[in-house]
Inverse folding.
């Protein structure tokens, strides 16, 4: 599944002209919009840890901003059960919540877990957790999206 993201990213960056005309943040936004539509827990960002002033590195990073989950304890337990059933991660492996969107009746978050089987250098895997509350039926629907062992993402390097 991650191969699709890599291919889509390369294709989009090529079509946007990034390889020949430098980096434009609107190009990154377009790629990240595609990641969001596919409910990927990752986004492409300019690597702020890059110390080489002669190049710009673009890497995958977790979507959203660190924050607390909007879900109450009951719904957190239901999400943990889904994640445990899918991948075997329990609550003790939960490292952080990152908020993509919090509206009154709709939440999108990235839940990041410690995962020794992850292909990423940081040994973390993540899921997009989407929850929608219907005030008329008083019912919460939730779903998770993401791979059990998050793949190591691409690194793009552009000379400046």
């Amino acid at each position: 599944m991650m191969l699709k993201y890599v291919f889509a990213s390369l294709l989009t960056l090529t079509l946007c002209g990034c390889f020949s005309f430098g980096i434009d943040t609107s190009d990154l936004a377009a790629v990240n919009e595609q990641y969001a539509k596919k409910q990927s827990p990752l986004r492409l960002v300019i690597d702020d840890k890059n110390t080489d002033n002669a190049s710009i590195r673009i890497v995958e990073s977790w979507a959203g901003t660190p924050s607390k989950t909007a879900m109450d304890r009951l719904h957190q337990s239901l999400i943990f059960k889904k994640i445990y059933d899918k991948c075997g991660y329990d609550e003790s492996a939960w490292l952080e919540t990152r908020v993509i969107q919090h509206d009154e009746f709709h939440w999108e978050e990235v839940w990041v877990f410690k995962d020794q089987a992850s292909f990423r250098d940081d040994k973390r895997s993540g899921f997009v957790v989407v929850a929608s509350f219907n005030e008329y039926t008083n019912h919460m629907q939730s779903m998770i999206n993401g791979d059990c062992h998050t793949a190591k993402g691409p690194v793009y390097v552009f000379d400046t």
Remarks:
- The longest strand covers residues 124-134.
- Confidence is low (pLDDT under 50) at residues 14-21.
